[in-house]
Amino acid sequence: MSRPGETPQDGFAWLAALLPSPRPLSCPRCHRPMALPAVRLLWQCPVCDTPQGETRAEPA
Q1: pTM of the complete model
Q2: Which residues contact 35 (CB under 8 A, 6 or more apart)?
């Protein structure tokens, strides 16, 4: 059990330390590398995607 303010360990920290970071996917709209946000569930394009999911760039 973790204390307040500590990051809980799920037992797989050793595996995350061994694996390399994933290569960024390219955005299907602008073809620039996408990034993983803090939640790390879905790739987001820093140019095309906004937090509300709206797009700023026109499709290429």
Answers
A1: 0.47
A2: 24, 43, 44, 45, 46
